[in-house]
Specification:
Chain lengths: 364, 364
């Protein structure tokens, strides 16, 4: 158990933005929401998963929808109270703690805001170890946990609670309501007992985000390594490509951000070209026509100078970025994991091959 | 208090199909669902609204979506139990009785099936005195009653419960989920106390439907009148036009049936032409370029020989029909009523003028 305040939130947001793999929304907006709540209500208690009783009700908090829309619509103040009331009324018992469902610029931050505003602790766990675009894409789905009862509320005060026969149906129905509410809403889903959270969750993810954030912040102060070496060493990242963004294609469709960013090689990659395709998160990275990384491994674009992650929302012409691959949480590499979040689910016509194998062959 | 069984259901379905004003779905499907439940579970007790205690929980049951889709998807057996459980869990008290929310081929029947299956009484009341396509279009909206908490379930077992800031938002969100569930679902909405039901409801509508149905069935046995005279006399209907259907334009969009039926005059209307526009229900009737009736007054098409109502789903080339206007429930003619269900709401560029005034001028 420890406290997290404004300083910790800076690093958590930065690290989670890297784990967001291009998605998870603008860390600046997420940070503002969390910091506003911390300033008003004081620091939040972060619990180690093992500190949570087995029968305690733990509820993930998140936003659902297109992060680009969240930037326009923002978040009111009353959503978390509405979610708390809806869920605790449904179960007839109080919520013991909140938790994030994914790492990312926004969804790593909102549970902190919720915990601060309602005076509840936050658990150091999530259900992805990264970000994914659809709500059934969590380790808890592999563990057979239901996404429902799922509560949803918008900033205007409309709310809904869903119970569905599969988590894919939850996605269908909640997505439809998200669209009708203007494309972004606050949700609580996968309400679960402490025992389940400990068994299937990605434990320690908040702390990992914070450490990654601190490392990125200090990357230029490491002795005996270039900043790039320090970054790749600390993140255990695979360098995929370095280039200047020469085109960004975007489409907001079905409350998702779809698109493709095209890179023109710089430095050691001069004369080569690459592209990254995304659906909220980066899905594939292709260098000189060869796929070098795919979901569920993390494909992250970071600034070549500062190593600050660049989410898909912030991609623009002329920016110089390094594409980096990070290994995903091991459970995602199981057949069930690949069925849920592998490249074919997203319509990419390639089998999943682990990042480290794809990168083994060298540059071609 | 009286019992309704198979024989009563025949007449209620026929009469409600007339009050459905072209909408409310195929009475044959509705009847099958109600009769199946009555055969299995026995007759249903019909309560006069005054017999319901003021603090009893009364819950309308309906289907939402396009009636043409219901014809394909049908209704399972478990929906009413799911709705009962969801609503009574929400309120923490049992449901005292079900009621219909509208008169129409399907929605007059489903509450009977629900009451039979769960052994609950049905109240002789609804919230329209006819059928309308959107769920905020009930007298209870004028009375300031909230449509929510609204429960929704599909035949697969998915369910949702909504709480919204306005009844228009309920329509938005529930419609989105209805579409995702395949275009037709079972719902309970406007849950209310007995006192509210008595104050704003259209009392006696089930009995009125039954009497209208019996009158249509016996229209050829009335002494001293032609069947047409008997029909118009008993329904207090205004004859608008008699014609042969020479074109039907249809579009299923946003879970609604939109369209237009074109009539070529027959008998006394020979040489003239007319058309009726609809959105689930008939919205306007135009004869020789002059609007002769608009929503919220009822525009009904009936077979010229049998006087059986022809819902918009059953319109087809060559059928001979009489267009009849019926006066709507008085509350619909208030400014609040016109704002909610008047012609301009549906995009028809005309003010509301009461049916009897539009018809006063004679044929032109």
């Amino acid at each position: 158990m420890r406290k997290i305040g404004i300083a910790e939130v800076e690093d958590i947001a930065l690290g989670a933005a890297l784990l967001g793999a291009g998605g998870g929304g603008d860390p600046y907006i997420g940070k503002l929401v969390a910091m506003g709540a911390l300033k008003e209500c004081g620091p939040v208690t972060l619990l180690d998963p093992q500190e949570v009783p087995d029968d305690a009700l733990v509820v993930p908090i998140a936003m659902m929808g297109a992060p680009t829309i969240l930037g326009e619509k923002a978040i009111g103040g009353g959503e978390y109270k509405t979610l708390y009331d809806t869920v605790s009324q449904f179960f007839g018992k109080p919520i013991y703690a909140f938790m994030p469902i994914e790492a990312g610029g926004v969804n790593s931050m909102l549970p902190i805001a919720a915990a601060a505003r309602l005076g509840l602790p936050l658990v150091d766990v999530d259900g992805m170890g990264r970000a994914f675009p659809e709500l059934q894409m969590v380790t808890f789905t592999i563990g057979g946990v239901s996404a429902t009862p799922m509560a949803l509320t918008d900033e205007k005060g409309n709310s809904a609670i869903f119970r569905t026969i599969t988590n894919k149906w939850t996605e269908e129905l909640a997505r439809a309501v998200t669209m009708s509410c203007g494309g972004s809403v606050s949700v609580s889903l996968y309400p679960m007992e402490g025992a389940v959270m400990k068994k299937y969750g990605v434990c320690g993810i908040v702390t990992r985000s914070q450490k990654l954030g601190a490392a990125i912040r200090q990357v230029k102060q490491v002795q005996g390594m270039t900043p790039e070496e320090a970054f790749l060493s600390f993140t255990e990242g695979f360098k995929l490509f370095k280039g200047k963004i020469c085109d960004v294609l975007r489409e907001t469709r079905g409350a998702f951000n779809f698109g493709k960013v095209v890179l023109e090689g710089i430095q050691e990659d001069k004369g080569r070209s690459a592209f990254v395709e995304f659906q909220n998160e980066n899905l594939t990275c292709t260098v000189e026509g060869r796929i070098v990384a795919t979901t569920p491994d993390l494909i992250c674009l970071v600034d070549v100078e500062t190593f600050v992650p660049v989410p898909t929302d912030a991609l623009k012409y002329g920016k110089r970025v390094m594409a980096v691959g990070l290994k995903c949480f091991p459970l995602w590499r199981s057949p069930e994991g690949i069925a849920l979040v592998g490249p074919r689910y997203f319509g990419c016509d390639t089998d999943y091959i682990p990042l480290e194998e794809r990168c083994k062959g060298g540059k071609d």
